[in-house]
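Next comes this protein.

***
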Amino acid sequence: MTRSMLLWSAPLCLLLTGCSEAPETTPKEPEKALEPATGQSGLYKMYQVARSWAPDAKVLKMNSMPLSEVPNVPPGKAAAWQATFTSDARGQSRSYTYSIVEDLPNNLHKGVFAGSEEAWSGGQGANQPFLIAAVKVDTDAAYKTALGQAGDYDKKNPGKPITLLLEKDPQFPDPVWRVVWGESVGTSNFSIFVDASTGAFQEKMR
């Protein structure tokens, strides 16, 4: 083989060698498991967005939202939350949702999503808005307090869904977490109020 033939064959060998090697692939990172959110976490995320709508936004109420796509949620957490904020300056209220998944059939978007505005003329009766700074105790801690007061009810009703509500009831000095054994207050015969500022047990409802 002449020198010129060697010079031509060398790049061809390199090209053939490169073609025979399997292409490198980057391994996919495993998908992170969905992590349900506590009430305080969901509330703060919605509040950050609500403040861009109204700097004087106050919390009116909040509730947990169960989703079939996220089963086996630990008590004290939820896959989605819905909160309503008020603004005296705007004379309006507005609802927001925070979800860890996209759930279009239920009109839920992943992350924070703003709902429509409604007229607001001030608190009446049980509907009293409050500052978010009053919510110092999270829902997982509130659930533990409620469970300690549930006695035999929880043992006699295993697997019952837990619904969590945040509200300002005039009979209590601070906003309260209402821990409900059941899918809603209307369908439940047992719930416990826990102070959202101090974490103290307030009242048992049957």
